[in-house]
Amino acid sequence: MTAETPPRAASPEGFRDRFETLIPTIQREWPAVARQTLEATRGSFDEVVEVISSQTGRTASAVKDQLLDLLEVAGDQTSRLADNLAPLEAQLENLLDELNTTLRPRIEKPVRERPLMAIGIATGVGVLLGLLLASGRRSS
After folding, report:
1. Is residue 31 a part of any domain in this protein?
2. What is the Cα–Cα distance from 122 to 110, expressed in whole angstroms?
3. Which residues, 6+ apart, have CB-to-CB distance to 71 below 8 Å?
4. How far is 123 from 126, CA to CA, in rounded Å?
5. Torsion angle of C-alpha atoms 129, 132, 133, 139, degrees rounded to 10
6. What does the longest C-alpha to C-alpha distance in the chain come to?
7. Are 63 and 70 contacting, i.e. CB atoms less than 8 angstroms apart?
8. Is this model's pTM higher than 0.70 or not?
9. Mind listing the pLDDT tens digit for each residue in 46-63?
């Protein structure tokens, strides 16, 4: 790496892991390259570069740089998505904890007081669901 070239956040090593999600983006950038041809590379960075270069007439160096840019953008988008989901995950966890503390005792008490009735109700619900699912399969 020369002094003029800054280090890249994306590297070919992470390419294979993200390959499946990058295929649509690669096809938008290079529509001449068939999906099957890309899939045949099994996510090998060098093979993808070679395929795109040979089918588009672009130099391998230019294709490598553009693929690394795509990989970097995909990584940034994934990071932003994870950051946006973190508060939602915490909120969901709090809601589940709240449900567990409020709803669970209300359900457990009747089951402990009348276990045979609870078993009967569960059996009835299971039979009804089984009948509904079985009739749905027959009509398909």
Report:
1. yes
2. 13
3. 10, 11, 14, 15, 18, 22
4. 5
5. 180
6. 78
7. no
8. no
9. 777 777 777 676 776 777
Distance between CA atoms of residues 103 and 108, nearest Å: 9
- Report yes or no on 118 lying in a domain: no
Cα three-residue angle 15-17-21, rounded to 5 degrees? 85
CA nearest to 66, candidates 85, 81, 79, 48 = 48
**What is the number of domains present in the chain?**
1
Per-residue pLDDT at 7 exceeds 60: no
Query: Is 16 within a domain?
Result: yes
Distance between CA atoms of 123 and 20, rounded to whole angstroms? 44
Residue 95 lies in a domain: yes
